[in-house]
Write a structure and sequence with these properties.
34% strand; alpha+beta; 9-stranded mixed β-sheet; 173 residues; globular
Length: 173
């Protein structure tokens, strides 16, 4: 019988760097959550960015189903990484994050810094960022799986993704 390599490689500096780059470059993410009306898994696309401390965050509207769902059950999953324009999309790197959503109150002292970081990454959000139904949510990362392309899978910890070089990049307008 043929011997196959283990599907999950040992996490190394290259895997950490690729995961951090995916997070730095991401402007959107797929958000998995539990639909509170049906109990079924559900997905939504959200804006994604990093706060100045490197923590994952989003700006969300209270009108969205995923906000109601996350307020009831903050456990969620995020998928980051878009397929390249050519080739097999399954060979494009992607990062799956297990997270817990933490909604920040409108009067949080961090709001000015979060607002500045968000607008640096999502400049068009200045049209709605201050609407009353919008709030910031931080995602506490519990763990992750990185698929760096064909036969390049890694399990990462929250510590692997919280390195000092994981800071937000400026958006191209």
């Amino acid at each position: 019988m043929a011997q196959y390599p283990k599907p999950i490689r040992e996490t190394d500096a290259g895997a950490r760097a690729l995961a951090q780059t995916l997070m730095q470059d991401a402007r959107v993410a797929a958000l998995a959550f539990v639909d509170p009306d049906t109990g079924a898994p559900f997905l939504s696309r959200i804006g994604f960015g990093l706060a100045t401390d490197g923590s994952a965050m989003s700006l969300v509207s209270d009108l969205a189903l995923h906000v109601r769902a996350l307020r009831l059950d903050p456990r969620a999953g995020l998928l980051i990484g878009e397929p390249g324009p050519r080739g097999d999309p399954l060979n494009s790197p992607r990062l799956s994050l297990a997270v817990t959503a933490q909604f920040l109150p409108a009067n949080t002292p961090d709001r000015p810094a979060l607002r500045q970081a968000w607008l640096a990454h999502h400049p068009k959000a200045k049209l709605y960022i201050d609407f009353a139904d919008f709030s910031f949510v931080r995602f506490e990362i519990l763990g992750a799986m990185l698929n760096g392309g064909f036969a390049r899978a890694y399990r990462l910890t929250a510590d692997d993704l919280s390195q000092q070089d994981c800071t937000p990049r400026q958006a191209d307008s």
